[in-house]
Amino acid sequence: MTAFANTMLFSMRGILVFVIGFVMLAAAVSCGDAHYDARLAAIDSIIEERPDSALAGLRAMGFGAFSRSDDRAYFALLLTEAQYKCYDSIASTDTIDLAVNHFTGNGDREKLTRSLIFKGATLEELGNPTDAMRFYKQAEETALSTDYHNLGYANLRMATLYNNQFDVDCSDLDKYKFALKCFEKNQNLNYQMVCKSAIGILYINKDNDSAFRYTTETIDLAKRLQNQYFYYNSLSILSSIYYQLGNYDQAKELAKNVALNIHYLDNEKCYYIIAKSYCKLGKRDSALIVKELLREPKNKEALVDYYSCMSDLAAVSSQHDLSVQYALKASELSGELLVKSLQSKLRSAESIHNENVAALKIAKANRNIIILCLFLAVAALLVLAIFTIMMQIRLKLKSKENIIKSLQIDCQNFINIINDYDNKTKHKTYNYNRKIESYISLIKELTSAKNTCKKIENSSFEKIKEMLLLNISNKEDFWSSLKEILDNKYNGVITKIEKENILSDSDIHILCLIGFGFSNASIALLANYSNAHSISNRKHIIAEKLCVNDSLYELFVS
To answer: How many CB atoms sit inside 10 A of residue 121's CB?
Structure first.
């Protein structure tokens, strides 16, 4: 009971110390990132060095502690990162998806990059390496060029993923080297150690000098950082390098040093090196003693080393048949792993091909949509052009129709004036009608279209106009008759104006038509002008010559 009480007291003290430390740390960083909760910033500051404490703090708070979407997304990112670094089981991508979706739109590229990295790490954990690689690449593309930590970590994750897939194209080596450069710029010694250790391993059997250099540098970093795991793991790697170089004594001694600290490692590779080194040195008894320590591993990659070692042990014991059998097993298993690697690459290539095909289909569909839109736009422009032309034709026809209607009215007024004159001067009726009868009939011919312009073809309209002008122009008797009628009606106005000798004959003709009430459009037709606007300008000039206002009709009614 006492022991239990002491244990509980110790646990409570530990929790109390953590809470006090956490509160102090939160207060220290409260002036840090103003966009997020200070508690999350405090957790973020310790997540690299103490992910277990960060995870405990996050679980103590929970999602419910935050109401703002920024803080909830930040919490989701930190929780996933802490779980991953603590090797805590992650069942789905739901939590990290919250962070990815939020940071995609809020402009925080650093947190978006981290979210994409740990989305990839979660997918890798769930057995989906292809999608994991896609998110790692997306994180690399999203990261700022100066964000060396996240650039390095994204490349480190990609390198590890390549390595786990038994990469044979050195993609993992290139990624590890790029990650190392980033961590060197960021002065992150821990990740430099991780990268150098991985590079040293990859150089074994390829370039032993490079393998030796990177491994010894890893050992130096492990000493500085007091990292026992990497120190002894790197000693094990160094012993393998010495074995490859034929320095079996040095390989054996290093491996024995590691064997005494085997609790830092998760494999028996050092025993294989010791046993094989004894075999190469011809020390059969010592090799057989080590053999008793060997156990057949379950990991297929480790089995290759195991069978290779057992082959050497059988050979040193003169069991040549058994040695050959183990060598064949090692060779077959190595070939199987290579085939699996190639199959994985083929599946990955197939997946990429399928994605490219889908992208091409989408691009083709988009292109067809663009072509259809262009076709519809051209068709719309064509319809608009046809509509515009039709409207112009309609306006022209409408203009002609208005001219005809105006002439009809003007002609009727003209006839009324003549009849009125006839009634006043009966002795001149016969002579006058004979003079202008043909001209009136021509005007009536032009106005006999029954108010519809559709029944008048362009050629007919122009022909009638031509006939009218041919009969009226330069016909002094016609204009003389008109002047006589106007003088009789308006107290000799035309004669008075002619005596002033200010206006030309064409001005007098226009003035006569004005006196009979013809509209500008009718005058333009009868006086052979291009349009009614020209008549308006001409009337203005005539008014200036006569020193009257623009309403020349006032001359006849004043």
So the answer is: 25
Q: Which tens digit of pLDDT belongs to each residue from 269-325? A: 777 788 888 888 888 877 777 777 777 776 666 677 777 878 877 777 777 777 777
- Report the distance separating Cα 47 and Cα 81, nearest Å: 8
CA distance linking residue 404 with residue 453, whole number of Å: 8
Distance CA 181, CA 191 (A): 10
Angle, helices 476-489 vs 493-500, to 10°: value is: 120
Helix, coil or strand: residue 165: coil
Contact 459, 420 (CB under 8 A): no
Tens digits of residue pLDDT in 194-219: 999 999 988 887 888 899 999 999 99
Q: How far is CA 156 from CA 202, 228, 366, 410, 531, in A?
A: 14, 21, 37, 97, 85
Cα(540)–Cα(517) distance, integer angstroms: 17
* pLDDT above 60 for 469: no
The H or E element spanning position 143 is none
What is the phi/psi pair of residue 224, to 5°? -65, -40
Q: Give 374's contacts (C-beta < 8 A, 6+ positions apart).
A: none
Model pLDDT for residues 432-446, shown as the tens digit of each residue: 444 455 555 555 555
Q: pTM here?
A: 0.53
Burial class (CB in 10 A: 0-12, 13-18, 19+), 4: exposed
Spatial separation of the C-alpha atoms in residues 555 and 553, rounded to whole Å? 5
- Alpha-carbon gap, residue 544 to 538, rounded angstroms: 10
271, 283 in Cβ contact below 8 A? Answer: no
